[in-house]
Structure formats: structure tokens, C-alpha cells
Amino acid sequence: MPTDVENWKSEVYGNEIREHLMKFAEEGWESIPEDEHDAWFERFKWWGLYHQRNGQESYFMMRIGTPNGVLEPGQVEVVADIADEYARGPGENPEFGDAYVDWTTRQSIQLHWIRLEDVPEIFDKLEANGLSTQQACGDSWRNIVGCPVAGKDSAEFVDALPVAMDLNETFKGNDDHANLPRKWKVSVTGCEEGCGQGDINDLAFEPAEKDGVKGFNVRVGGGLSRNEPRLARSIDVFVPPEDADAVAGGISALFNDHGDREDRYNARMKFLTDEWGTEKIRRVLQEDYVDFELQHAGDDLRDDYTYNSGRNDDGHHDHVGVHEQNDGNYYVGLNVLVGRMGADDTRELARIADEYGSGEVRVTQRQNVIVTDVPEGNLDALLEEPLLDTYEPDPHPFMRGSIACTGTEFCSLSIVETKNRQVRYARWLKDNVEVPDGVEDFHIHLSGCTASCAQPQIADISLRGMKTRKDGEPVEALDIGLGGGLGAEPRFAEWVEQRVPADEVPGAIENLLANFEERKNGDESFRDFVERTDEETLAELVEPEETDYEDPYMHNTKMTWYPYAEDDDMDASPAPARADGSPIPSDD
């Protein structure tokens, strides 16, 4: 039998949701029938709106799609203005204030504390400036990701930007692909480093060459969510750029017809690939979904991939720092700790991008931002800007490597607090822990649950939200995984330690790195060390320990209305609230 979600989607879904959304916005939060909340909240996702968690009723997270991470001149300022005007809620974050922008691991933008009544005005401002929330969430094509400097990379093999933009133009708002069994994540990569992270996407176009033609090989079925990570697998197809639309549309249609609509857990391309195998997927694609003969895969560049590899000799390759473009100008990548930037700082980012570059900004899959098109003569002045004291182009490895998802601050799935915790972890590690010799990159990813929005399985140290008991009291805790990475030989982390109290995790990392320094062979990378060490030994090397690090969020933040509120009990929540912020009385 179809799931509840499939039944809801069969009644209203896709572009038609907008009419209902606008009507509810006009009439206010209270106009949504209480017994229809789940149905409408599921539908609203298609237009980029996630209802926030218990205790925050009437507030939404809004996701804005930026295809391939490209923000055109003027768009960053618009985002900052919207955050400043509409994304201030009843609670203030002690690290980030009460208006901020989140840059995501899929090169998108997220705003919080959005009220339904403000959505029409926000949509007007976004769409007047070429931005949209359409299909930023929901069961359809998500934001297309790729190399954040596509079209500008001095060592690019094939320019993937036109392909990514064409796919976005073709499939966003396309009714034939609007109601898929689940989310559909697509990566288009043209660089030699593999920074589009195709391995963890449902559909990946990766740089290749066949008979002298540069284009893309096709892989399917990657993903990290829940406890079922998969690497994308080749279907033995080469696609010249002009055929990418047709092949992508064919695979999307194949998933639409054959993906599981009776079990949402099983409704991902990775499970269909498991079930069918790549040969059957290629055969059915050829027979039923494309009207030209598919070419066999060409020569790929996977042996050259270095992005997020975890290998010492592969360098940074995260686009942070100063880099020359293919036109003689430069781009400057800024490290944004855990991807969060205040509204005022976001406005400053827009200013310096306009003053020193072309005004364009790119977003990376490591939650960072890039100022592009900077003439060499402007570099020194740009690097002296005060904003770069906070968002450094040459950050410490623990700051550079930190990624965190939204966490219990807003997310109903998360089990633990994440953003502020990872900020504190990174600062404590920077001040207290020696980086092992030879290590320039060290990635620590903190995900609040098994949904893996922070992509923990591909980090040197993977942290995943759990609960445990300590001194007889329930506390927030983290599972610890080691040795994940992509690059030429992608590998998921090994989960070696479970339910470590959150305040003992920095001590565990300190001890682990000291043990690694003592036992590594020469300039061996952390990932190489993990690969040659058995799981039992790795668990022994972690050694959770209390230190002078103090974690203010050890209590059960999932059961609070807002983890940072002075009175965070559910009964203290001012939600639900009207557009002016006044609370809506409950019926009882």
C-alpha cells in the first residue's frame, strides 16, 4: 500500500502547492487545519519550507537553492537583507546572534525562524533577484551540486557549469519529474579533483573522455543517509555534454517509475541499484527511456581524484585560500566555521565581493564561501579586510575541517546539539591539541542523527548524535567513526566507539591524535593509519576522557523548545506565534 506521504502527494503536490501555500500565508498559521499539519508540512517542503521542531510551532526553516553553488552579483546582499528582516525568532543563539545564514553541504542556503505569513514577501524578493526555493526540498530534484569553481578552475578538464545550469533549468519545476519516490540528488563534476562528490549522489556526471570527446561518465546510487551508506556505481555510460539532459531525464524517469513508493526508507536510488544491479539499470534506461544508442563509458579521471581524500600528499583541495582562475584573475575561499554567518557579515561578504571581484560568490560543499573574479591588484586589499579575520583564507586545520548539521536547535530529527558544540570543539582543539606532524587537513564532521546531513562518513573523525547515561543522568553523546574520505579510493568511516558523553569527545580526540602521532609510520596520513589498524585497536586508541573542556549542552536538548533559551522547558515556548510575534493562545 502507498505510504501516507504518497497519498498526500497524490492529492496536491509540485507546483500546485504554491497556490495553497499563499492562501495559508494570507490567512495565517491558524488557517492550517491541525489534523492536516503533517500533510501540508510534507508538501511545503517542495517549496523549500521545513516546519521546525516541537516547541517552535508556526516557524519554518527556508532553503534557497543555488545551482552549483553560484550566487550572482547582488544575490548575497538580498539573502542578507531577508535574513535580517524575516529570520529573527524568539530565541537568540549565544554564538551567532538572532539573524544568520547557513551555507549547507549541498551548496544551498538555509534561513530559520521564518513565519508563514512572511513567505509571499520573501518569495517576491527572492524571485525578483533570480533566486528561488522551488524544489530545494521535497521528493524531486534537489539543488544540483558540483565543483564550486566550475568554469573558473585553471585545471578544469571539462566545463561542467553549463551542464549543471541546463539541468537545473530543465528539471526544476518540470511536472514530469516533480513527484519522485524520494529526494533526487545530482552532482555534475568537470574538475580533475572530484570535488563534486559524485560518489555520494543518486546521479553523478563525472569527467571522462571518449574518442577525443570530453564529457562525462555516469554513476548512480550513492548516498549517506541512515545506516545504509553507498558509493555511486558506474552504469557504463559516457555522455557528451549535449546529451546530459536526455540521459539525466531518462534515469530520473526510471527512478520515478520503479522506485519504491510503499516504503519510504527503501525509496532511494541506492536501494534500486542494489536490487537491480547496474547492468539492468543500463539496459532498462536504453530500452525504455532514451531514444538514441548509449555509448559505453570513456576514460575517467578517478585515479586522479584528491578532494577530501584524507591523504597527506593530496593537499587541501577544498578551495579555501587564494587560487588563480583560468582567466588570470583569482578566487579567494573563506572558511566559514560550521557554515554559519551572521546577517551583517553576509552583507559584508556581498560588499567585498562587489568591491574586489565581480560581485559573484560561490558556495562549497564544505559550508564555505568563495569570492571570485578578483584581479591580482585587488588581492592585498581584500586580504586585509576585517571580515577575513573571522572567515580566514588560511585557517587552522581544526577550524578548516569542521562541519556540522543544523542539530536540535531547529531539526526534529536531530538527537543532539551540533552547531555551537562543534564551534566549541574546534576552538578547544585548536588551543589544546597538537596537530600531528605532516597533517595539514583534518576533517571532523558532527551530524545530529543518522540522516548524515553533515556527511560524517567521509571525515577523518565522524561524530553522530546519540544519548547515554553518565553518573546516573541522561546526557547527550556521540558515536565516533574514523578514517572516512573520498578521493581516488573512497572509503566510509569505521564506527569504533559508541555513545561517548559529549563532554568527553574532545579528550577522546586529543588522546587519539597523540596515539596516532606515536604509532604512525613516518609521514603516514591518519586515513592510512586507520586503514591498516584493526577496529579493536582503534577503539582502544580513542580513550574518551574528561578535560577542561566544558559542554553547556549535555542536557537533552531535543526535549527543549530552544536549547539556548534561559528557560528552555517546552511549556515556556512562545510558539505558535502570529506574524507580528504575538503568541497564539492554545484552545485549552
Automatic annotation (TrEMBL):
What positions does the domain Nitrite/sulphite reductase 4Fe-4S occupy? Answer: 137-288, 399-545
Q: Which GO terms describe its molecular function?
A: 4 iron, 4 sulfur cluster binding; heme binding; metal ion binding; oxidoreductase activity
Q: Which Gene3D superfamilies match?
A: 3.90.480.20, Sulfite Reductase Hemoprotein, domain 1 (3.30.413.10)
**Domain spans labelled Nitrite/Sulfite reductase ferredoxin-like:** 54-89, 95-128, 323-386
Which residue ranges are recorded for the region named Disordered?
565-588
Where are the membrane-spanning stretches?
none
Q: Which UniProt keywords apply?
A: 4Fe-4S, Heme, Iron, Iron-sulfur, Metal-binding, Oxidoreductase
The positions making up the signal sequence are none
What does the similarity note say?
Belongs to the nitrite and sulfite reductase 4Fe-4S domain family.
Q: What is this protein called?
A: Ferredoxin-nitrite reductase
Native species: Halobaculum gomorrense
